[in-house]
What does this fold into?
Amino acid sequence: MKRLLLIAAILSACGTEEVSDLDIVGGQKVYRSFYAKVGGCGSTLIRKDWLISAKHCGNPQKAIIGLYNRKDPKNGGKPKEEIRITQIVKHPDWDLQLLKLARPAKTKPIQWSTHSIEDGARLEAFGFGNTSYNGSGPNYLQGAVFFYNERATNGARPGILRAANRGQSAVCHGDSGGPLIYKGKLLATITFTEGKCSINGLMGFTRIDHHWVKEVIDR
It folds into this structure.
């Protein structure tokens, strides 16, 4: 995703993690109906009346589901929905939050990934984040490919998955909360980048806590 909006910085054993509203650096224009813009961040439709995003994204009031071209009122001819957010439930420990919609969306939600993941597995991320560290966000939704780093993930704090790109793209300011996809299903959300959105840097994603999500949305 081209740019992640860095909102805060957190320290970890592996250095300074820049928590961001990420945008994809070096991404490609894509359309994903399950992607939703919420304030300065991204989110993903996981049930017709629930989105998941990053906790550090704050308290958005509205979701634009299926946003493709943020400068075009007609969304480039793609379907989109604007729905008010009525409830926010934050994860007690991880950088996740659930957003309840005022009404069910017409869009089909994405399924959650339950696949085991191997080192080097191909992952996809999406967002409207900056296309460079000091730049601005793109007009169109961006997508990029990343590769799972098992060794770095094993050394990360609980809930964090680490991935990188082979010198071509990175998440950046404004991408936070957006989806990380594995085999067509939601695996994690975008949480942080390192090294000023460097295309050679490792990025951090928060795994979906399936037990917590089910506990909240099935109440």
The first helix runs from residue 150 to 154. The first strand starts at residue 2 and ends at 12. The radius of gyration is 15 Å.
